[in-house]
Automatic annotation (TrEMBL):
<feature type="binding site">
    <location>
        <position position="128"/>
    </location>
    <ligand>
        <name>L-aspartate</name>
    </ligand>
</feature>
<dbReference type="InterPro" id="IPR023434">
    <property type="entry name" value="Arginosuc_synth_type_1_subfam"/>
</dbReference>
<dbReference type="GO" id="GO:0006526">
    <property type="term" value="P:L-arginine biosynthetic process"/>
</dbReference>
<dbReference type="InterPro" id="IPR024074">
    <property type="entry name" value="AS_cat/multimer_dom_body"/>
</dbReference>
<feature type="binding site">
    <location>
        <position position="127"/>
    </location>
    <ligand>
        <name>L-citrulline</name>
    </ligand>
</feature>
<dbReference type="InterPro" id="IPR014729">
    <property type="entry name" value="Rossmann-like_a/b/a_fold"/>
</dbReference>
<protein>
    <recommendedName>
        <fullName>Argininosuccinate synthase</fullName>
        <ecNumber>6.3.4.5</ecNumber>
    </recommendedName>
</protein>
<keyword id="KW-0547">Nucleotide-binding</keyword>
<comment type="similarity">
    <text>Belongs to the argininosuccinate synthase family. Type 1 subfamily.</text>
</comment>
<feature type="binding site">
    <location>
        <position position="96"/>
    </location>
    <ligand>
        <name>L-citrulline</name>
    </ligand>
</feature>
<dbReference type="Pfam" id="PF00764">
    <property type="entry name" value="Arginosuc_synth"/>
</dbReference>
<dbReference type="InterPro" id="IPR048267">
    <property type="entry name" value="Arginosuc_syn_N"/>
</dbReference>
<keyword id="KW-0067">ATP-binding</keyword>
<comment type="pathway">
    <text>Amino-acid biosynthesis; L-arginine biosynthesis; L-arginine from L-ornithine and carbamoyl phosphate: step 2/3.</text>
</comment>
<feature type="binding site">
    <location>
        <position position="131"/>
    </location>
    <ligand>
        <name>L-citrulline</name>
    </ligand>
</feature>
<feature type="binding site">
    <location>
        <position position="276"/>
    </location>
    <ligand>
        <name>L-citrulline</name>
    </ligand>
</feature>
<dbReference type="GO" id="GO:0005737">
    <property type="term" value="C:cytoplasm"/>
</dbReference>
């Protein structure tokens, strides 16, 4: 396939070996095009510090390094939390909803810089290539997309290192056993011994959380306040999004909560095994669900459970900017109008345990549900209700008797 004619490319840049090698590779294979590196900081920690200078040393003409952690939480994580969206019952979508934000910023930079292409370092085996490219197609359909992993012949890490040295790119000695992705929401681990699903994750692998057996022998209580489904306070202290999640990450990590091990179905057709550290996220999902138990009626809650599954699939598949996700978000936001209150949880050696919830919009009524004598519920009303509710069963049974089937 003939290569597209491009003069200026915006590259999603992390500072790692892959994306550093991509800079000279692009210039070499796309007629000396200009490469602008763009790194979006959404809580990667110390990884971001050397990125700017390394991008320039690797041949980029310009490097953007921007902290969008607050936008990430408020515009991507909180909406997904409100939906209670989880992929395949376990995965809290830590990488999935990060990619649309990164790709959106790449598109904005490409337009500002007059670039005609965007490049990314996602492999041809994973989901991220889809998430990046669907976002670009949704926001800038005329931009060319370059995915070097689907084009180049650098099939092994040793080949990449050799290529880097040949082009004068600084190569750091990396001691990483696993392929990892980190942001303020989670840390994922893949590869190495985890490729055999029979292998238990090693405790020394955990970089954020304590292993549950190493957590304190005494439980820790934490309260989380929500306003319209959005977390706003921890232990009674009002906090912004970044500070709030940072605090919950610390609390959850020392108690060993939020470690998830899953063989998930990738969008591209294969199963992959991942272990995720999600201490703050696990607390928030548990607390939010507890409050919904209190504040949503039966029909709304049950319908929303189905919406959550579909919402999670859309996020996982990179369809953040599709019409269905936006429409489902409108439904979710409507349900959250009454999801305001406080949830208390007990954390103990990897476990999250309910310890109380309250809300000014609680639908729970002790007057109606009490086992003691009450003046508000006439138990004899249940007779008529059961007769009507069970009428189809009765009519079917009578028909079967008449037809000799019973």
């Amino acid at each position: 396939m003939a290569k597209a004619k491009v003069k200026k490319v915006v590259l999603a840049y992390s500072g790692g070996l892959d994306t550093s090698v991509i800079i000279p590779w692009l210039k070499e294979n796309y007629d000396g095009c200009e490469v602008i590196a763009a790194c979006v900081d959404i809580g990667q920690g110390d990884e971001v510090a050397p990125v700017h200078d390394k991008a320039l040393k690797s041949g980029a003409s310009k490097a953007y390094v921007e902290d969008l952690t607050q936008e990430f939480l408020e515009d991507y994580v909180w909406p997904t939390l409100k939906a209670q969206a989880v992929y395949e019952g376990k995965y809290l979508l830590g990488t999935s909803f990060a990619r649309p934000l990164i790709a959106k910023r790449l598109v904005e930079i490409a337009k500002e810089e007059g670039a005609d292409a965007i490049a990314h370092g996602a492999t041809g085996k994973g989901n991220d290539q889809v998430r990046f490219e669907l976002t670009i197609k949704a926001l800038a359909p005329n931009l060319t997309i370059i995915a070097p992993w689907r084009e180049w012949e650098l099939g092994a890490r040793t080949e990449e290192i050799e290529y880097a040295k040949k082009h004068g790119i600084p190569v750091a000695e990396e001691n990483k056993t696993y392929s990892m992705d980190r942001n303020i929401w989670h840390l994922s681990h893949e590869g190495s011994d985890l490729e055999d699903p029979w292998n238990e994750p090693k405790n020394e692998m955990f970089l954020i959380s304590k292993a549950p057996e190493d957590a304190p022998d005494k439980p820790e209580y934490v309260t989380v306040d929500f306003e319209k489904g959005i977390p706003v306070a921890v232990n009674g202290e009002k906090l912004g999004a970044v500070e709030l999640l940072t605090k919950l990450n610390e609390i959850g990590a020392r108690n060993g909560v939020g470690i998830t091990d899953i063989c998930e179905n990738r969008l591209v057709g294969m199963k992959s095994r991942g272990v995720y550290e999600n201490p703050g996220g696990a607390i928030l999902y548990y607390a939010h669900r507890e409050l919904e138990y209190l504040c949503l009626d039966r029909a709304t809650y049950h319908y929303k459970e189905g919406v959550a599954i579909r919402f999670g699939e859309l996020v996982y598949d990179g369809m953040w900017f599709c019409q269905l996700r936006e429409a489902l978000q409108a439904f979710v936001d409507s349900t959250q109008e009454s999801v305001t209150g406080t949830v208390r949880l007990k954390l103990y050696k990897g476990n999250i345990i309910s310890a109380g919830s309250k809300s000014p919009y609680s639908l729970y009524s002790q007057e109606f549900v009490t086992f003691e004598r009450d003046e508000v519920y006439d138990q004899s009303d249940a007779t008529g209700f059961i007769n009507l509710f069970g009428l189809p069963l009765k009519v079917r049974a009578l028909m079967q008797e008449k037809a000799g089937k019973k």
